[in-house]
Amino acid sequence: MSRPITLTFDNGPTTTVTPHVLDVLARYGIRATFFVLGQNLMSRETMALAQLAAEQGHWIGNHTYTHDVPLGETTDPDAPLKEIGRTQDLIGRIAHPDRLFRPFGGGGVLGTHLLSPEAFELLKTNRYTCVFWNSIPRDWEDPDGWVETALAQARRLEWALTVLHDYETGAMRNLEAYLDKALAEGFTFRQEFPPDCVPMVRGRPVLPMEAFIATSRTTLSPQET
Questions:
Q1: 195 close to 130: Cβ distance less than 8 angstroms
Q2: Which terminal residue of the chain has fewer beta carbons within 10 Å of its beta carbon, N or C?
Q3: How far does CA 31 lie from the centroid of its chain?
Q4: Which of 63, 67, 165, 166 is catalytic?
Q5: Which residues does residue 62 pair with via DSSP β-bridges, in sequence order?
């Protein structure tokens, strides 16, 4: 039995990379989820790309506005509204009905830095679905080597939820090679998320959340997802 991979793309949309990603996914018949940054929806061109992705059947999720400081590490009590609420307003009608949200992980790490108590309450009150990950091939720092890393991670998992990035690192020039190799190995691609990566569904925690919510906050410097 083949094992599934779910593809997600963070930190876009960008006019230089997202069109290529959409073209490749269309040619392979793969649907993914794009977790967009609010600040990247501020131009007519990038908003049009997000709309195009939705029209092509991809899901659009929220990945904060600035991608600057993990919410569990910010000292600003209004950060959840500024980062999550403002972005959701920009996504508007193209948002997935489950109001998908992925927190900024500061290098792809899972931990209490992901959410502040205020962010957790906002997610519950506004019925967001929180989507984490289990495969981080770090394409942003290894534009050519991430393909083998992603495949190695998927081999160790029953169902990989892989995080890639549709912005300017050069990594997505290898997207076709990755898909070819994954398909040749017998992996399949599906759009749904593995249940163990979705601890909250429409505002209701379905898995323990304590490990992802800060009890105190300090400020971190910006890092990648």
A1: no
A2: N
A3: 14
A4: 165
A5: 36, 101
List, for residues 69-103, the tens digit of each pLDDT value.
999 999 899 999 999 999 999 999 999 999 999 99
Residue with tokens 């990603």: 21
Q: For residue 13, is the peptide bond before it cis, meaning its omega torsion is within 30 degrees of 0?
A: yes
**Cα 5 versus chain centre, distance:** 14
Element (H, E) at 163: strand 160-165
Burial class (CB in 10 A: 0-12, 13-18, 19+), 147: buried
> The tokens 């990379």 sit on which residue?
17
Say which amino acid occupies 198: V
CB burial string 187-201: b at 16+ within 10 A, e below:
bebeeebbeebbbbb
| Active-site annotation holds for 165 | yes
Residue with tokens 């876009």: 12
Q: How many Cβ atoms from other residues are within 10 Å of residue 125's Cβ?
A: 9
Describe the crossing of helices 44-55 and 18-28 by its angle, rounded to 10 degrees: 10
Question: Which is nearest to 30 in space by CA: 56, 54, 51?
Answer: 56
CB 225 within 8 A of CB 163: yes
CA pair distance 148, 154, nearest whole angstrom = 10
Cβ-contact 128, 102 below 8 angstroms: no
d(CA 52, CA 208): 35
H or E segment at 22? helix 18-28
pLDDT digits (tens, 9 = 90+) for 129-175: 999 999 999 999 999 999 999 999 999 999 999 999 999 999 999 99
